[in-house]
Design goal:
By secondary structure, the protein is an alpha/beta fold. It is built from 14 helices and 14 strands.
Length: about 425
């Protein structure tokens, strides 16, 4: 059989929607300067689907730093992997500043956050080890776990009693294998907006021996008194053995990093295959990320504006009777009841008639019969944006409850 033949009639659970409004619900094209309002198909929309938490994507100091860095270094420098010919003083500087900011001894840069997470898990875990992880862990964690030969036990999302149970199972197993235990969770869960229960997990060390790895992609820059992330927010920096984040969220850039003690980082630098055999993060991005980190630390007003918008938005939704689940972070999921056609029709309605653009999530990502409209507030949004959005959501909810949406795909026309 032709190995490609199996793809002809099976595109996967998400790919099954590939022919349904391509370029509209999947792979849409936003145009214009990144910000609270952009154009979609030639019309201005309020944009709630960008992880530009602090509004740094188009901050004038960031734009200048990026421009200056490209002019100075181009996008090719340095050539080669860090270990061979791709290292520089500014790579080292960014790592030192990141480590200091998140309260760790050392840090290591990654070209991409997703790639870094997958490769870190691969480097840390062997066939005698056991990984205990949260059921709602991000896809990069799941993909990392799929690659390793370690035993894996999953616990119910943020369920400490179940985490305890899985740790007990893991402990019995490593007594036989001679391996160790790694617990992996997230600082902020990107779909639900829940904080990971880092402090409660750490308390389980009184009963079990394990190391704690936290993916804080949505928490870095947004959570805590200084923006240093979930460890700062929950006052548990020392309880986190391996701290990971990406530059693609609050830093509005490319790349990621891992922070831990020097001994572990030395091991990873000489054993993480994705970094040993891949080209170094270009210096233009490193220089730009140094500027972003500087602003993150020196301009608390950006984080304060973000949280002003978060509180206004979430309080407004709740006052209007919307279900936001249990979010206690900027991530704002709005849950409604309905099927696929309800979801696409109300999303189309909001985009075309109310000029609101946000992400819609349906089965198989969430259970059947549920619709999640995920809102990502940023420091760039205005009170007017928020008021218009809550009014729009109230209008489409009424249509949904009155079953006014046709049970068919909307006619969105041919994508531009």
């Amino acid at each position: 059989m032709d190995i490609f033949a199996k793809f002809e009639n099976r595109l996967g659970p998400i790919g099954d929607y590939a022919e349904k409004s391509p370029g509209y619900f999947a792979f849409p094209k936003l145009e214009g300067e990144i910000g609270n309002r952009m154009k979609f198909r030639g019309k201005e929309k309020i944009i709630w689907s960008l992880n530009n938490y602090l509004g740094l994507a188009n901050h004038p100091e960031v734009r200048k730093a990026d421009s200056d860095a490209v002019a100075k270094y181009g996008l090719a420098s340095p050539m080669g992997a860090r270990m061979m010919s791709g290292n520089s003083d500014i790579h080292d500087q960014l790592e030192k500043e990141l480590a200091s900011f998140v309260g760790k001894e050392d840090a290591m840069l990654f070209n991409y956050g997703y790639q870094g997470m997958v490769s870190a898990i691969d480097s840390l875990c062997g066939r005698h080890d056991v990984v205990v992880y949260d059921a709602e862990s991000h896809a990069c964690i799941i993909d990392g776990l799929r690659l390793i030969p370690s035993h894996r036990y999953v616990y119910k999302h943020n369920d400490i009693a179940d985490c305890d149970k899985q740790l007990a199972r893991a402990t019995e197993l490593v007594k036989k294998t001679g391996g160790g235990i790694l617990v992996i969770t997230e600082g902020v869960f990107g779909m639900s907006g829940n904080q990971g229960k880092i402090r409660e997990i750490a308390v389980l060390r009184e009963k079990y021996e394990f190391r704690l790895f936290v993916d804080d992609a949505h928490g870095f820059g947004t959570m805590g008194k200084t923006g240093a992330g979930i460890g700062d927010e929950q006052d548990c920096i020392d309880d986190i053995d391996v701290y990971f984040s990406t530059f693609a969220k609050s830093m509005a850039s490319i790349g990621g990093f891992l922070a831990a003690d020097k001994k572990l980082l030395t091991f990873l630098r000489y054993n993480m295959r994705s970094q040993i055999y891949a080209k170094s993060l270009p210096m233009a991005f490193v220089a730009g990320n140094l500027k972003r980190l500087e602003l993150l630390r020196s301009k608390p007003e950006l984080r304060e504006k973000l949280w002003h918008n978060v509180r206004k938005l979430q309080n407004g939704f709740r006052t209007a009777g919307f279900d936001l689940g249990t979010t206690n972070t900027p991530v704002t999921p709005v849950f409604m009841k309905g099927g696929l056609y309800d979801a696409v029709q109300l999303t189309y309605d909001m985009r075309e008639n109310y000029n609101i653009f946000c992400s819609v999530i349906v089965y198989p990502v969430i259970p059947k019969g549920q619709i999640e409209l995920r809102i990502i507030p940023t420091a760039s949004h205005t009170d007017q944006d928020i008021d218009e959005t809550i009014a729009a959501f109230s209008a489409v909810r009424e249509k949904l409850e009155k079953k006014l949406y046709p049970q068919e795909m909307p006619n969105v026309g041919v994508p531009a």
